[in-house]
Amino acid sequence: PSHSYQCCTSPGKTVTIVVRGSNKLVIEEAERSIHDALCVIRCLVKKRALIAGGGAPEIELALRLTEYSRTLSGMESYCVRAFADAMEVIPPTLAENAGLNPISTVSELRNCHAQGEKTTGINVRKGGISNILEEMVVQPLLVSVSALTLATKTVRSILKIDDVVNTR
User: Fold this and answer.
1) Structure-derived torsion over alpha carbons of residues 133, 138, 142, 144, reported in degrees to the nearest 10
2) Which pairs count as long-range contacts for 152-158, CB under 8 Å and 24+ apart, including other chains?
3) Which residue of 51, 64, 77, 167 has the lowest C-beta tally within 10 Å?
4) How far apart are CA 16 and CA 100, in angstroms?
5) How far is it, in rounded angstroms, from Cα 162 to Cα 157?
6) Contact 69, 77 (CB under 8 A)
7) What is the β-pairing status of strands 138-140 and 120-123?
8) What's the Rg (C-alpha) of the chain?
9) Residues 6 or more apart in contact with residue 109 via CB below 8 angstroms
10) Contact by Cβ (8 Å): 156, 75
11) CA neighbor of 104 nearest in space, from 129, 69, 67
12) Which of 67, 57, 51, 63 is closest to 107 using CA atoms?
């Protein structure tokens, strides 16, 4: 199938994107992709900050939170450690989606971060781990912050419900 893209410059602030495809499934997938791209652009407009991608921030945060949890005791230590464990869900998912062995890839990634290589992440294009900033694999900071905020609020809501159920 042939594809054509047209761009016109106009002084207005409204843009129309026409999506055509061979079937409804192709069109819906194109619409989802365009929506995702527009959301990324919106995030960059709201907060002009990029961070390393490829699971690098998540594994680094997990490592730091684990270290911090060792300075705490009791329930606080347990909660911080659980949050660190939750951060480690993203890198194995990326590795698996890239066709890599998640266990060995994440172990290697952890070792690199423990040695101070903070920008090492999963490189889907090369099928391994590398310095993700050198490869220009970045993501908007706001995407990660929003995901963490939403996840944390969700957990807090669930914990509140659990408290209500236990009181009855």
Assistant:
1) -90
2) none
3) 167
4) 39
5) 9
6) yes
7) unpaired
8) 21
9) 55, 59, 91, 120, 121, 122, 129
10) no
11) 129
12) 63
- Alpha-carbon distance values, 135 to 19, 50, 53, 120 (Å): 31, 14, 10, 10
* Per-residue b or e along 96-114, where b marks 16 or more CB atoms closer than 10 Å to that residue's CB: eebebebeebbebbbebbe
The band of 7, judged by pLDDT with boundaries at 50, 70 and 90, is low
Alpha-carbon distance 17 to 144, whole Å? 27
| Measured distance CA(43)–CA(139) in Å, rounded | 10
Termini Cα distance of the chain: 62
Asked whether the CA dihedral 57, 58, 59, 60 is positive or negative, the reply is: positive
Q: Are 25 and 61 in contact (CB under 8 A)?
A: no
Q: Residue type at 154? A: T
| pLDDT 10s digits, 63-118 | 999 999 999 999 899 989 999 999 999 999 999 998 999 999 999 999 999 999 99
